[in-house]
Design brief:
transport; 16 helices; MATE_fam; transmembrane helix; MATE family efflux transporter; mainly alpha
Length: 488
Amino acid sequence: MSARIGNKLSAQNLTEGNIFRQLFFFAMPLLLGNLLQQVYYITDSIIVGQWIGSTALAAVGTASSITILMVNFFTGMANGAGIILAQYVGAGDYKKLNQTIRTAAVFTVCFGLLCSVVGLLCSPLFLQWMDTPADVFRQANAFLTFCFVGMLPMLMYNMGAASMQAMGDSKTPLRFLSVACVVNVVLDVLFIKVLGMDVEGTAIATCLAQAMAAVLVFLAIRRKMSQLQGTEPEETAEAGATFGEGPLAGQPAGLPETEQIQQEEKENGWHLFQRMALLGLPIGMQSVVINFSNVVVQSHINSLGSDVMAAWSAFSRLDGFIILPLLSFGLAVMTFTGQNFGARKPERILGGVKAGLILSCGFTIALELLVILCAEPCFSVFTKSEAVIDYACNMVYYMVPLYFTLGAARVFIGVISGTGNSIMPMIINILFMCVFRVIFLPVSAHLLGQNLLVVYYTYWISWILSLISIVVYYKVSMKKVILLAGPQ
């Protein structure tokens, strides 16, 4: 039997207690954190637009799309590490937990430095590929350069937050994020309004705030791991055998013990990195590929005129808020599943599916109703054009009612990924959220004409087919895997 980490993780242990309550209180900080980031993005845009100008706002928006793409991809890798960590937490394997955190930290530093070097060398090229207008290019390049310089602390915070959440602590990253957002806005005001800096001021403010958050989350993880050092040596040794053959298995008998341990740790580190890549790359690739499909949709929107373009832009801002519950509960279910899969408690995983569906779909439907009722006054904040407001409201009325299908799909994706299988969700998402849209939209536009209904049909069908496919896969294959993970 594996040893348990014990009471030191009892406050964050998702393997015991009321499932519905645990998922709710674990997901709430995730939801608030996502909401806080959305509010910050809007506040940052207002500061740049009002105090520097519309050209600067366009530059920041253009450059941010590049950095966000990289951060989203890395977040997939962080989630891969989080799944492994959650499984080791559930199994009570402190040794592998510690090794995984160290491996994730090394990977983050290497990836962050690589992003900085590539970004600094290729920033102008990236902007050229995006056909950035000449009047925006200089400011966009300046902003992007500073963002790439500060890429490492941003990635360190994301990996640290994913690690804390995997250990069942979603509140601590939220506190650090809250402090970082406040510091970011204060530094924006200082650098731009007081010191009169251009777009590089907001980039430096973001880097400094993220660096502070990275240091805070690093200290929190270090403190947490120091608390776990109280585990008895025999427990640690026993836990080390939970997922492997023991610390010295397979080593040549003639090697000194210290050398054997160092060699075993090196091999374990490489093995853990491979597992993180196997789990994280498919998650990261999903966001990259789905963003590509959005480019195709945007091209169709652009062909419908400036009013529709403006309406789609306003709707996209609102969309960023509507999807927060389904993203938060999907991540909560993934962590919950990871811990209980490691603890070999299949009945709790199945209960987590039901609780996750109720919470995710319930919150999403409630938000849908609120947005539908308040659509017109919401869009009036963005524009005074009646035509734009009418188009944007039309988008809400047609698309938002089906968002609950996305919420349900995210729950099943979270469960499947939490067991260590992120490849099939990637295949399903890429197939229907990207390939289907890229093919179906132009074909249906050719047959039915250039109009918004074609966009609605494309999204509706892709959401429904994706949900059906992920549910069928869960019922046919994953339920057996979960049930076989029971006590042995």
